Amino acid sequence: SSRVAEIQAQMSERAVELLGLPEDRPCLLLDVGCGSGLSGDYISEEGHCWIGMDISPAMLDVALEREVEGDLLLADVGHGIPFRPGTFDGCISISAVQWLCNADKKSHSPPKRLYRFFSTLYTALARGSRAVLQLYPENSEQLELITAQAMRAGFTGGMVVDYPNSTKAKKFFLCLFVGASGTLPKGLGTECADGEEVHQAKFTNERMRFRNAKGKSVKKSRDWILEKKERRRRQGKEVRADTKYTGRKRRPRF
Fold first, then answer.
1. Who's near 221: CB < 8 A, 6+ residues apart?
2. Per residue in 7-38, pLDDT tens?
3. Where is the composition biased (Basic and acidic residues) (predicted)?
4. Quick check: is 209 in a domain?
5. Range of the domain at 156
C-alpha cells in the first residue's frame, strides 16, 4: 500500500542519514532484507549504488517487475554475507534482522545465525564504514541477543532510538561501526520537556547476560518456553496450557 511505501521510504531515509556517507562520491551499499526494493529506490535517488539480499523469491520478483536499479541476490542472511572483504561502503536493513531470532527450522539456532550474519557482515564492510539496521524487537531479551552477537562479531556502536516516548513513532536503529568507533548519533525526539536528553543505549566491553554465543542461557528459560509455545499455537498445533510450573526445573530424583 501507499502508506507502507511511505513508512519504508522514511525509515530508509533515516537509515542512510545515520550512515554518515561522504557527499563527494557515490557509495556501494548493501540492503539486507531488500524485499521489493523500496529502500533501494531511495538509495538510488541519493546517487548511490546498491545490492539487495532477500530470502523471499516472491518479493524479489516484485522488485524485478518494478525494474529497480540495484542488483538482487536470493539468499538467507542467516547463512552469512557472501561477498569479498571490504566490498561495501555501508549497509542498511529495514525491518529484517529480528527475523533471525526465529527458529523456523529444527536446525536453526538464532544465536548462531545472528553471529554468522554479523561476523560476515563485518568482513564485507570497508574499514571505517557503518551498518544501520532498523528492527522491531519483540522484547528486551531479543534486543539484547541481537546486540550481544553484533558486539561479539567485532562491531562497536549502539542503539539509536527515535521518539522513545511515542508508542507509534518509536523506532529502533542499531548503528554499528567497523574499525574505529565513531560518535553515536542522537535519536530524533530524544529531548524531554525540561530540555534534558534521553540517554541512548551503548555498547560496552562487558559480557551480556547471555553466558555464551551458543545461547545456553537463552534456551529452556521460562520466557523461551512461553514464546515457543505461543509460536506453536499460532501454527495451529496442540500445546499444553501455561501454568505456574511452566519452565520450572525438576528436582533430581534419588
1. 247
2. 888 999 999 999 999 888 999 999 999 999 99
3. 236-245
4. no
5. 1-203
- Tallying the residues shown for the chain, one arrives at 254
* 235 CB-side CA count, 13 A: 10
Which of 126, 130, 150 is closest to 17 using CA atoms? Answer: 130
Task: Please identify which residue in the block is written with the cell numbers 546486540.
Answer: 147
184 and 244 assigned to the same domain: no
Q: Are residues 110 and 132 in the same domain?
A: yes
> Measuring CA to CA, which residue among 141, 97, 91 is closest to residue 115?
97
Contact 70, 28 (CB under 8 A): no
Q: Do residues 112 and 189 share a domain?
A: yes
Question: Does 105 have pLDDT greater than 70?
Answer: yes
Give a yes or no: residue 99 inside a domain: yes
Cβ within 8 Å of residue 35, ≥6 positions away: 52, 54, 56, 59, 62, 63
Which ranges in 1-91 belong to alpha helices (H)?
2-19, 38-45, 57-65
Our measurement of the distance from residue 107's CA atom to the centroid of its chain's CA atoms, rounded to an integer in Å, reads 21
The C-alpha cell at 163 is: 521518539
